[in-house]
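Honest question from a wet-lab person: if I give you the sequences of every part of a complex, can you actually get the arrangement of the whole thing, not just the pieces? Trying it with mine:
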Amino acid sequence: MKALLLAAGRSRRAKPIEDKNFLKFCGKTLIEFQLESLQSAGFQDILIAAGEHNKERIEGVAAQYGATVIQQENLDDGMAGAVLATESHLNDEALFIVSSNDVVEPRAYESVLKASESGADAYLLATQMDSYFPGGYLKVDNGQITDIIEKPGAGNEPSNLVNIVLHFFRKPDTLISALKSSSSNDDDRYEVALDQLMNEQRFEAVAYDGMWQPVKHPWHVLDLMPYFFNKMEASVHPSAEIAESARINGPVRIEEGVKVFDNAVIQGPAYIGKNTVVANNALVRGSIIGDDCVVGYATEVARSFIGDDCWFHSNYVGDTVMGENNSFGAGAVCANLRLDEKEISKSGRNKLGPIFGDNIRVGVNTSIMPGIRVGSNTMVTSGLVVAEDIEPGKFVHGKTELIIKDNRASLDESAREAMKKKLS
Amino acid sequence: MKALLLAAGRSRRAKPIEDKNFLKFCGKTLIEFQLESLQSAGFQDILIAAGEHNKERIEGVAAQYGATVIQQENLDDGMAGAVLATESHLNDEALFIVSSNDVVEPRAYESVLKASESGADAYLLATQMDSYFPGGYLKVDNGQITDIIEKPGAGNEPSNLVNIVLHFFRKPDTLISALKSSSSNDDDRYEVALDQLMNEQRFEAVAYDGMWQPVKHPWHVLDLMPYFFNKMEASVHPSAEIAESARINGPVRIEEGVKVFDNAVIQGPAYIGKNTVVANNALVRGSIIGDDCVVGYATEVARSFIGDDCWFHSNYVGDTVMGENNSFGAGAVCANLRLDEKEISKSGRNKLGPIFGDNIRVGVNTSIMPGIRVGSNTMVTSGLVVAEDIEPGKFVHGKTELIIKDNRASLDESAREAMKKKLS
Amino acid sequence: MKALLLAAGRSRRAKPIEDKNFLKFCGKTLIEFQLESLQSAGFQDILIAAGEHNKERIEGVAAQYGATVIQQENLDDGMAGAVLATESHLNDEALFIVSSNDVVEPRAYESVLKASESGADAYLLATQMDSYFPGGYLKVDNGQITDIIEKPGAGNEPSNLVNIVLHFFRKPDTLISALKSSSSNDDDRYEVALDQLMNEQRFEAVAYDGMWQPVKHPWHVLDLMPYFFNKMEASVHPSAEIAESARINGPVRIEEGVKVFDNAVIQGPAYIGKNTVVANNALVRGSIIGDDCVVGYATEVARSFIGDDCWFHSNYVGDTVMGENNSFGAGAVCANLRLDEKEISKSGRNKLGPIFGDNIRVGVNTSIMPGIRVGSNTMVTSGLVVAEDIEPGKFVHGKTELIIKDNRASLDESAREAMKKKLS
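Yes, you can. This is the full assembly:
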């Protein structure tokens, strides 16, 4: 049996996160996690649909798993295009399709495989929703899926089963034909083809109650973290140098070469990547920190996802997602709460920091507002308030103008003496 | 004997502090402190003059002390109006009048009561001033007060005795008559009536050398704190969770349900109210913190009075007075010192932070200047400098405008490598 | 033999550092260090050339070393003028000239003295440069210096020997004559006279491979620190009060009366001057802190030179040089890195903070950009970004204007309750 991992998407809604496939959770990228899940479920023949933008990087990973990378030429063709791009690699074996947009536990793969031992033509993984979720609901009749209804609206759900892209097709050639003959040229061409196939073939739902996390918006990265924290094995690598006065509380994984300086606190769950420095009096809690980072003096990183090579210094970073190679001047703040404490950027969260791409520099005492997206290769100067999204490759400064007059004020040395005396 | 506590004032000069009667010192409100002082001096029949604005709240407290609340209809009538409002509740018993504007030790009450055992008609508590104070000085002739002279000016004091509103009247009906016939319609009607009564009755001064603190301006709250710290019994409630690495130094009272996280320091004298969290690396010193507060990571609260439900996070709060339910974004600073280190807002202090009402939100990296008053129900956005008083119910923002250009700067990876190597 | 210490310069390029002679390294001023070096090399007869601006202060020091201070009237005459000013104090003894612009180890003095025991007319100390340095290169022919070539350019060096102003003249009267007859009226008059003398006399180079640090630009102060740290004897004065939870790591010298509060970290090499307070959670590393300073809560001072009486509070101070009696409001930041991480102010450094004179006040949350010079007696208000040099005696403020509207936002108490519950 073949598996096809759909990884060609451009992560548009996840911007400025460059490529969600390479977000690294506790030392492992999402694509590695998915490939390992496929392997442990028994798949040996894996295809990966990539785009021009990430093909090379995916090939680097694929090699380690013996997977074959296929380039989807036109990414506008969506999932349908990705499947069609693999046509020449398919044969009469069954096909198992997985999307990088849907992260599930490895046992989900096994459930679908196990279910496929009975004789239906296709199986779709489906999660049981207790309350309405804006996804594709399955209409099921006598155990057979007869329709997928996208976002039916609360109260109109045909079942409590929502479609997840872990799909099994016993006869992939029929899927290919259906995709080719699909009347739709839109984003939903894959779903239209499925609808058509359902008229001819028996589709069954495989119910699943484990972790399922769509990864579309940047905050989904934060939503995924608890799962990986739960899986994470707490440990301190023997090469790590932890100052005696530093505190490591709760489940924390500290990798090779990490240094934790005096009075730093790491409050689990937390992951500290290789060669990262957690400096004096810093606080890391509920966060994933990548490799080669510096969490400088008096910095708090709370409930955030931080890529490799990020440097902080006297910053507050809360509920933030960021890529690689970013650096923040002292006093720069990632705000994570509106003044009215209401929902931020339609994320369903009232705590959400800004989202950063890669290679970004932020000046001292600059404030980035909650939910703001800062594109890669951007520099933001000092003392600013950034309350709008910033495109990649920008240089952002302000209009501050100094008024310089002669200083007519005098200092009262006696006041100072008195203050000094009060220090105890 | 009856006692009358004058608590109807609108605390105008204390704005934006909403009602000084309910400022809570080490767990007890000022009005509770005064009612307990009256009770312990033996008063069982207590009247409280309240206004429409605080009657309901005062009734809640009065019930616990068996006190009767009387509403003063027109607050513009001042003290005279308050006393007149109680007329129907008075009988031929003596009347003891206390003002919420004057806070004294319980023994002051006892001194006046004891003095009243001799036969004069009225007694006024008087504190002995070593240097000039802008209050009402008593002119005393052969042990009898013959006049009250308001703010006579330095050098013109008729004695060293300054009037405090702890007044005993053996015949309150004569006071009522004098108030009714008073020629003054102004703020000083009470004093004019006293002057008139002095012509007919024997008034005596009761000298007092204990703590006396007028509570008119917000900084008087800070001035009162040392007294309550001295009275405070240091203790840590058994339910409090104090991290092993946290430091509690000097006289500190920690109430039920408090949590103190790693590396926090509480430097006494200090009071930490119920269920408050003092988070990692925070410093509280010389301060009263209310219930249900969060003193977040890397926050210092120094010599300040903080009401219930206030949240801080990487802030400096020095010499500040604030009400309830306020929240400060990371990096927001309560400045407490002028650049020229001179007196702030005619407070007689060179260290005084801003004063806050209730339900205020302050954005990240915003600076509030010394002595500034921020009214209740106000929001101040991020990155601002607030150097003017803000009325209640305002939304304050700035005129920051970003200039966004293409980023032509490049990063020098070798420089970064070199910096990383230097970290030890 | 006489020694002449040239200390009259106005430190123009070091501005806003007021007088480099009085920069205090680990408790000793530069001029004291040089006078002690002269004394330990055996000099008993020391002249110091001072200017009107620093004569009085230098006389205070000179007295302790039995040195004579001579005032150079016209500082525009440079080194030549300084030497000529001493003419009446010279006799037929040899003259040893040292400049306050060149700091070397005491053994350099001894090397020149020892070399002078052979019979040449003059000796110049010379350091061997491995790579090109923009200084005065010595042309040497058969052991004799025949020329000094200023800044020959890389590849054009006549030797690898660069002139340092530790000069020995066996016949100072010939130097005087040469200076008088020099055709130059410019800055280089001294060098022109030397060139002329070389035609008649035998000049020899004394090679030296020890520490040599020109002190011209402010960052040279930082460059000098490692030498003094190496010489420094680590110790904690018995009168110092160090909290049990404070950490003193590596070579640190702590002087009389110092207080180090809970959770502070001093990471050596570091020097903490008399009566200085290092407050809770502060971090001092690789820095010299003067006497009577306060390194307040949550402040980091890294790789910096701090004069006496400087107060910090929740600041970041990195790679900064400052004089005396400066004070920084909470959240003020000394930025020390460009966003592009490139060289700052032609200093050869990519990490360099701002440079401060004396008696400066900086408001809260103000950011001073890397390499910026802030003159003495200046006040900078709050919340500013200072990206230009500030002349002495200025009052710097901004154009911030608040927009104040009615607050129409409401607070969601349930959101707050939920946040509070999440705190652990």
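Two things worth pointing out. The longest helix of chain B spans residues 219-231. Residues 122 and 169 of chain B are 5 Å apart (CA to CA).
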